[in-house]
Amino acid sequence: MSEILFSKSRLEASCFKPGQLILPDKNIPEIAVAGRSNVGKSSLINALLNTRIAKTGSTPGKTRSINFYRVTTEGCKEFRLVDLPGYGYAERSKAERNDWEKLISAYIKDRENLELVLHLVDFRHGLLANDKKLQEWIRTNDKEILVVFTKSDKVPKTKWLSMRQQYVKEGLYSCNVPVITSSALKKGFIELRMAISGRLEHPACCLGGSRSIH
Questions:
Q1: How far from 189 is each of 6, 62, 130, 181, 183, CA to CA, in Å?
Q2: Rounded CA separation 101/113 (Å)
Q3: 142-175, pLDDT tens digit by residue?
Q4: What's 165's DSSP letter?
Q5: Direct distance between the N- and C-terminal alpha carbons of the chain, in angstroms, rounded to an integer
Q6: Which of 82, 6, 44, 81 is nearest to 187 (CA)?
């Protein structure tokens, strides 16, 4: 399996309120990254882009804004990788959580150039209640989802395939087979880059064909 490289990346904008979501050049396709707080979004973004562009920390809920990263592929094509604030962190105030929900909602509902949502799920736990709620909500807005399992290094490798199969049987929405990743081990990122590149080349497809696993 040949490597696909994302040659350059930079932080283009950070938006804290719905009114700040207007960006120049709406023709650039976007791939969003969504997931629970502490699921490893920043670590995954850094591993995916092979740089320390996203801030990581031990405190869940660190990302309060929507961060837009402008990425150039080895073929000189560009896209935005969009880091959405994590959800499910109970220690934030209700008002803060409501603000975050409004921000994410405004982005997903109105973003015509949003090609795919990478839904990050902790491999140890599978989809929790608010993960399933997010999936249903994204689907009602006619957006495509690809499930990406994180922190697979916390699970014996001999169990990876059987656990993924079990999670699929239990019910999840993904445009194709979920990708198993580990930022610590740098595993799964060739497959993930291929999925993103394939989606950008063929917007109607996801990893060879658009379908939901449920």
A1: 11, 24, 25, 7, 8
A2: 20
A3: 999 999 999 999 999 999 999 999 999 999 999 9
A4: H
A5: 28
A6: 44
In angstroms, the Cα distances linking 154 to 11, 27, 35, 47 are: 30, 39, 18, 17
Name the band, by pLDDT with cuts 50, 70 and 90, for residue 87. Answer: confident
Task: Detail the DSSP E strand segments found in the chain.
Answer: 6-15, 30-35, 66-73, 78-83, 114-122, 145-150, 179-180
pLDDT on residue 9? 93
Question: CA-CA distances (angstroms) from residue 9 to 5, 54, 74, 180, 208?
Answer: 11, 11, 11, 23, 26
Q: Which domains does the chain have, with CATH numbers?
A: 6-201 (3.40.50.300)
Phi and psi (nearest 5°) for 69?
Answer: -105, 125
* Alpha helices (H) in the chain, listed in sequence order: 41-49, 94-110, 129-140, 160-170, 189-201
Among all chains, which residue has been given the structure tokens 């629970």?
36
Specify the pTM: 0.89
In the predicted model, is pLDDT for residue 93 greater than 70?
no
- Quick one: tokens of 101? 């929900």
**Distance (Å) of CA 205 to CA 51, 88, 96, 160:** 28, 30, 36, 25
Residue 31 Cα to chain centre, angstroms: 7
